[in-house]
Structure formats: C-alpha cells, structure tokens
C-alpha cells in the first residue's frame, strides 16, 4: 500500500477550487486501486494533511494524470499559502486497535 500526503496551508478558495476539488475526489473513488483518504489538521489549525491511500503506484500515477488534477496542480498558488507532497510506501502498521485507520 502507498500513501500520498498533501500537506498544505489553506489560502482563499473560490468556485473553481471547489469544482476541481469535488471532481478530483469523485475521480479517486472510481479508481479500483484507491483505498480511501484520511484528513488531519495541526494543533494550531494552520496546516492540513490529506492522506490518500492507494494499493499501488500505478494507481497514484493514474490519479496524478487526471486532467482536473493536473489543472489544479498548475493553479496551486491561487489557493494555498504553501504545500508539500509526500509519497510513501507503507510496509507495516500496528497499534492497539483503538484508533481506526484505513492504512492496513
């Protein structure tokens, strides 16, 4: 399993942002290799992290090449005050089971 983290500081969102964001999320749901998404907010509320989980890198590549995703990436400076993307391979997860996660 792989995780694609989109860590960002929100800026000002407009109608175009909301349209593209909804389209990207809908597209992800159609991909057989898409597992799900978890979202986190920093303690100070200034930084957010959307962690998308995929079964394989091929699905991440397909997701990244989606036209609306490419358009949003080209306009990232319009809506965010900073961002970082981290792609990681998950080799193990463990815990006491009291915190639910889709990363397995």
Task: Describe the protein.
This protein is α+β, with helices and mostly antiparallel strands. The chain has one domain: Alpha-Beta Plaits. Helix content is 36%, strand content 33%. It is built from 4 helices and 4 strands. The protein has helices spanning 15-30, 57-65, 67-74, 76-79, and strands at residues 2-10, 34-41, 48-54, 80-89. The chain has a 4-stranded antiparallel beta sheet. A hairpin with a 6-residue loop joins strand 2 (34-41) and strand 3. Helix 1 (15-30) packs antiparallel against helix 3 (67-74). The longest helix has 16 residues, at 15-30. The protein is globular, with a radius of gyration of 14 Å. The relative contact order is 0.30.
Question: What structural keywords apply?
Answer:
single chain; 104 residues; alpha+beta; Alpha-Beta Plaits; four-stranded antiparallel beta sheet; 4 helices
In CATH's first tier, which class applies? Alpha Beta
Order of helices and strands: EHEEHHHE
C-alpha termini separation: 8 Å
Number of strands: 4
- At CATH level 3, the topology is Alpha-Beta Plaits
CA-based gyration radius: 14 Å
Architecture in CATH? Answer: 2-Layer Sandwich
Helix percent band: 25-40%
